[in-house]
Design a protein that fits this description.
alpha/beta, Rossmann fold, 9 helices, globular
Length: 233
């Protein structure tokens, strides 16, 4: 029987890599979608390509958009990436690393590709527990977007597509995400989570994303293979 197609948003980070493995384990033929959007942490695209190849996706597309035109984020403008924030600090307010409307833009591209593939399934690695306060990672946002998406396409109007946005990590801690990925055989050594990595991909170790990743591996009781790879462990 032919496997159903699914579009998986793939940044090359820990969460999206785990989601890709989960979608594959559920029997989907995965089409990976990444973005070159003017992000300062461009090394994540190298990681995404490595992950896509390792997991044998049907196709990996890197869409080209440039959110630097609008700025407003430490990831797309000349704004310093915060370092060394506590977990308590991360739990209050929306950080400067939030990219305005990024997930809305990314999901719109995924929706377009899913419609052309005849797919009713999109996977995205948003998380509402161990995250940095992004408003477009919340369950109510995903639910609202899914409702909108089913009103917005030809396939939806004609009844040939009932889109489902899968968020398998939405209620998991980072430690649980790590454990699930390891259970599925994910190699995290070539993923990239850092907001401000060196050119070779070595993580800074101090940005919110690095700290949350480190917290996840520590609570899972395993060493981060990326840190081992760079001799940081």
């Amino acid at each position: 029987m032919k496997k159903p197609a699914a579009v998986v948003l793939l940044s090359g980070g820990l969460d999206s890599t785990t989601v890709l493995a989960m979608a594959k384990s559920q029997g989907f033929n995965c089409y990976a979608l990444s973005f070159r959007y003017g992000q300062r942490h461009i090394h994540e695209l190298t990681a995404a390509a490595t992950v896509a190849a390792a997991q044998g996706v049907a196709r990996h597309v890197v869409a080209q958009i440039d959110l630097r035109e609008f700025g407003g984020s430490a990831l797309t403008a000349d704004i310093e990436v915060p370092k060394g924030r506590s977990t308590s600090d991360m739990s209050h307010g929306i950080p400067i690393t939030y990219v305005p409307a990024r997930n809305t833009v990314f999901l719109s591209f995924a929706l377009a590709w899913a419609e052309t593939l005849g797919s009713s399934d999109i996977f995205v690695g948003v998380n509402a527990l161990d995250y940095s306060g992004y408003p477009d990672c919340r369950p109510e946002y995903i639910a609202a977007y899914e409702t909108m998406a089913n009103l917005a396409t030809k396939a939806g109007v004609e009844g040939t597509q009932k889109l489902k946005i899968h968020t398998p990590l939405i209620s998991l801690t980072k430690a649980q995400i790590v454990q699930e990925g390891l259970r599925l055989g994910v190699d995290y050594s070539h993923t990239s989570s850092c907001y401000d990595p060196q050119e070779d991909g070595k993580p800074c170790g101090g940005c919110d994303s690095c700290l949350l990743r480190a917290k996840g591996f520590a609570e899972a009781g395993v060493k981060d293979p990326l840190y081992v790879r760079f001799g940081m462990d």
